[in-house]
């Protein structure tokens, strides 16, 4: 049994006449009669009572109901595959870190949705290790996260590099350096001397976070032990408390551009000083399984991310 046999059966059942059904289907009466006989033989029951007109038997009536649903599904299959081929429909399963999602997705998803309004989109957020494992198991199509991405068979390409910044309330800079504060700010915007902030309270992310690991490695090389006032899981909590003057923190460049561009203004209550050392730079990357199937929608999303990264995610 195939779609064609069901379509031929439905035509005969609706026309109640082989000649009329054959004309409707543009095939010969002999060929159509052969298809119906073969279908009856395959099912083992007569589908029509042969009289003055062909009347569906009870088995024929039941098959009509099922055949209509199957043929409707066939049309749906072709419609959806046509839309997938023409990039109107598709599925994208994206994995991204919690904080990156808040920064990156508003910059790229609206543009993707405009060009792929029928695409099915699923988003999972997790930490670095979870994202790597989901990609390895093929549970996501695309991963956006920080290097290193250690997944066998994954194609990984860097989207951008970013620095980590020491976030310091301006009141602290003014208090420490007095009349020299302006000069020290200009100097520290190139590279700060962290030892001069040794006695200041720090609000840091808890250990195990990528940013905290990078900071701890940097400070160990400088033989600098920060005075930790508070640890938190939420980087936005740390930033908000620093903005209120409660202490100093560390914040990524990408998040500043995406979430707190106003904080870079001259009248901001905060100073931003880049951490020293090349190892305090992070690389945001996009990854997918090289040999896995990628729908046109997934390919378009990857290309969109690369274009936005090349232009700057937050460029107007």
Distinctive features:
alpha/beta; single chain; five-stranded mixed β-sheet; 12 helices; rod-shaped
Description of the structure:
With 316 residues, this protein is α/β, with parallel strands linked by helices. It is 48% helix and 22% strand. It contains 12 helices and 12 strands. The protein has helices at 3-15, 18-25, 29-43, 58-85, 98-115, 128-136, 170-177, 181-188, 210-221, 235-243, 253-259, 296-311, and strands at 48-50, 54-56, 91-97, 120-126, 142-146, 154-162, 164-169, 201-205, 227-232, 249-252, 270-274, 282-289. The strands form 4 sheets. It has a 5-stranded mixed beta sheet, with helices on both faces. Strand 1 (48-50) and strand 2 (54-56) form a beta hairpin. The longest helix has 28 residues, at 58-85. The radius of gyration is 32 Å and the shape is rod-shaped. It starts with a helix and ends in a 5-residue tail after the last helix.
